[in-house]
Amino acid sequence: MSQLLDLIHPDEFPALIVLICLLFVTAERLARPDSLTMRRASWLSAAVCLAYIVTGAAVWSPARVAEFLMLLIRAGLAAAVTFGVATLLLSLIAAVAGAPVEAMITWSRRKAAEAQRRSSEKASRREALAKEHQEREHQARLQPVLERERQHRLEEEAKRERERFAKTDEARAEVIRFYEEHAALLEETFPHSLFGANLQTKFPPSIAPAEAWIAAQEMISGMLPKIAEARDKERSVLDETKKREDDASKVEQTKRETEERRHAPTRLTEWYERERSTIEGRLPDGMQRDMVLQELQDRYDQLIREAIQEAQP
Fold first, then answer.
1. Are 38 and 32 in contact (CB under 8 A)?
2. Cβ contacts of 35-42, under 8 Å, gap ≥ 24
3. CA distances to 86, 175, 195, 196, 215 from 200, in Å
4. pLDDT tens digits, 30-68
5. Using one digit for the tens of pLDDT, what is the confidence trace for 2-41?
6. What average pLDDT does range 56-84 have in this prediction?
7. Cα(129)–Cα(117) distance, rounded to whole angstroms?
């Protein structure tokens, strides 16, 4: 301890004073008088001065005033050296790394903030995990109920879909039935391939029943004019055919009548010969047979005259 105290020796006072002056000049250039560095150097020098006095008094036990005065001088020089060195070192440290205490405070605050943040994150994660666990348990409890509701909803949707398809198919079937009943009339103006394409267009899979019946009404209404037109055309064809047949029949009848009138004398002659032969074969010679033959002759002459008159144009 005495060796530490002898660092400030009376023989080295001049050198120490020069050193102290240099340190003070340098300190004034490095730090302002009201700066934190100056205050900390002052606290440190005061602590060194007090420690030097206490230690020197304990080690040397000054009994005279001169010895105690020398102790105070040495303590003051030690404080001045400490102040200059501390000011120099603290200024250099502050210039390179900032204020150490402030840096420590900032570091400690940052660490505390990080620790608090980590703690908050852990708490948040624990709360999230707990909430998730509760949610899973709640979902597990609700799963059977939700599954039943989902199945019921699917069944209801399937039922509505079946009903929709049934009503839609009824409208579609009505259109098909109407077309098949009048297919012969619609074959020319509305062929089956065109009907099938229109049916697919008017009745898509997603059509509603009301829209399906509207589409059926539109298609049937669209086919009615074509059916009426085809019937008119068919009626015209039938009338024309009947007219031609009637004309042909009249021509044929006229030909037959002409042919009959032309061959009428021959047929009458053949008839007369057959009748006369029959009468001659059945009746004996006598007045009665002559009278019958005469009547037959008269009838034959009359028919011949009528046939000749009809044959004349």
1. yes
2. 36/99, 36/101, 36/102, 37/87, 37/90, 37/91, 37/94, 37/99, 38/87, 40/86, 40/90, 40/101, 41/82, 41/83, 41/84, 41/86, 41/87, 41/90, 42/83
3. 99, 12, 9, 6, 11
4. 666 666 666 777 787 788 778 877 877 777 777 777 877
5. 666 666 767 667 777 777 777 667 766 666 666 666 677 7
6. 78
7. 18
* Beta carbons of 81 and 16 less than 8 angstroms apart: yes
The DSSP-derived string for 168-194 is HHHHHHHHHHHHHHTHHHHTTTS-HHH
Separation of alpha carbons 209 and 195, rounded Å: 20
Q: Which tokens in the block code for residue 172? A: 């579609």
Cα–Cα distance for residue pair 63/59, rounded to 1 Å: 12
- From 7, 24, 21, 46, select the one nearest 91 (Cα to Cα): 24
Farthest CA pair distance, the chain: 227
Asked if 48 and 7 count as a contact pair (C-beta separation under 8 A), the reply is: no
**By the 8 A CB rule, do 276 and 259 touch?**
no
Residue 80 near residue 126 (C-beta atoms within 8 A): no
pTM exceeds 0.70, yes or no = no
Q: C-alpha distances in angstroms, 147 versus 136, 157, 158, 213? A: 15, 15, 16, 37
Looking at residue 302, its pLDDT comes to 82
**CA angle, 44 then 49 then 55, to 5°:** 120
Between the two ends of the chain, the Cα-to-Cα distance in Å is 182
Phi-psi region of 289 (alpha: psi -120 to 50; beta: other; left: phi over 0): alpha
Which DSSP string corresponds to 139-174? HHHHHHHHHHHHHHHHHHHHHHHHHHHHHHHHHHHH
What's the CA gap between 132 and 28, in Å, rounded?
64
Cα–Cα separations (whole angstroms), residue 181 to 101, 140, 203, 210, 307: 106, 60, 20, 24, 57
CB 205 within 8 A of CB 172: no
C-alpha angle 12/13/17, rounded to 5°?
120
